[in-house]
Amino acid sequence: MTRESALAYFEDVLQAYDLAQYVAVLEAASGKKVIARFAEELFDHWKQHSTQLGLSPRSSAQIVFTKLQERMQRVEQALRSFFEDPTCTTLASWQTLFERLAASVDRHYLRGFFLKQTVCKELLRAFPPKHVMKFLGYNNFDVLLEHEDVFEIMASLRFGETKEWMHDFFRQYTDLRSSDFEIRQVQWRVLDPRKWAALSDRFQHQKFHQLSHLKEVGLIFFLPHFESRDTYILIKPMSLFLHYVYEIHFFSESFQAAAQAPETFTQTLIALLKGDVRIPPVKRTVIPILHQYHLKEASPDPRAFQPHVHTEVLHWKRAVETLFSLLSSQLSPEDVQLFHDGNILVQRIGEKLVSMNFSDLAIDERNIKTYHVHEALWNALFVAHFSEEVLRSAFLTHLSLGYFDVKAL
Length: 409
What we know:
- The chain is 55% helix and 10% strand.
- The protein has helices at 3-13, 19-30, 35-52, 61-82, 91-103, 117-126, 130-136, 141-147, 150-160, 163-170, 193-207, 235-259, 265-274, 312-326, 333-341, 358-363, 371-385, 388-398; strands spanning 111-115, 181-185, 187-190, 211-214, 219-222, 286-290, 309-310, 346-349, 352-355, 403-405.
- α9 packs across α11 (193-207) and α12 packs antiparallel against α13 (265-274).
- The longest helix has 25 residues, at 235-259.
- 36% of the residues are buried.
């Protein structure tokens, strides 16, 4: 494959602006010219896995997607086998699933630098969650704390209070100091749908899944549907749980680094949590760091199509690697390799882009999605010229700033 055809491929699947200039910057900074070989490897992997799926060059986008979803069903069955056919109809069954899954993660990732439990209570006391209290039947905040778990109440804020209330609540964060944080275990809670479902319906419709997290609290929470008819009852919560474990740890490292400069800790903390992308200097060697999946929106932010790197890709990659290491004895080597390689595999078939990325396939079993592979491929372009370690270091060093200069690496 020529350099020109490689650039044309990436420009097409990424719908990219200024890609040739960006690649030239990466080449100059790294001393490597790998774009043609990298694209050729992607084509070879796509062809290899397409052949194993029983596809031909004439297969339509929908046929390719259907074959990939058949492999996802194997993953769902492998999870059921690994977890010994769980019922998934009780709080205890889900709690056991997450405990077993957490046991597969290096303990290093299950500890971090998070808000103290006492500080969470103080924040809530200063700004009581009125909708949540009313829903639970409490008139007095101290009585609420006597009878309710503070982590469960913190989780309920995400779906029980208005955006306006949340905005006002987080204004308190401007008074936080590094001394308000401590090293402790990541917490996870399975919320009882009989208790919380009526309050949470709006949240689930907006987020498309029932699992979420609070990075600064070191908390993952899940609200199960005991009567769920989803095709992938286990794939979504299990993979998202792992993703959040790694994301929370990543931000914990950033919080700890920020604590080394107490005079700017609060400012850095808020910048990290808001995830706002600052406008970088107009300079070709400056690479923006994105946090949001802009391609999910009906009118995507143009920055999604401009050169950048994306933090979420690191967490998803590690989550998928952990998941498939657990399932290696339940699945064929071909299936494991498919989802290892598929992280950055995407091709245009007719008018449609089709992704082999596990997260794209897991998030919606009925419709073709490509926003995970889109961001994974932007990261992969950078990593092909440097390394994943260099990218991770750049994230940790420059995350709150929102960009870095590739010449300074």
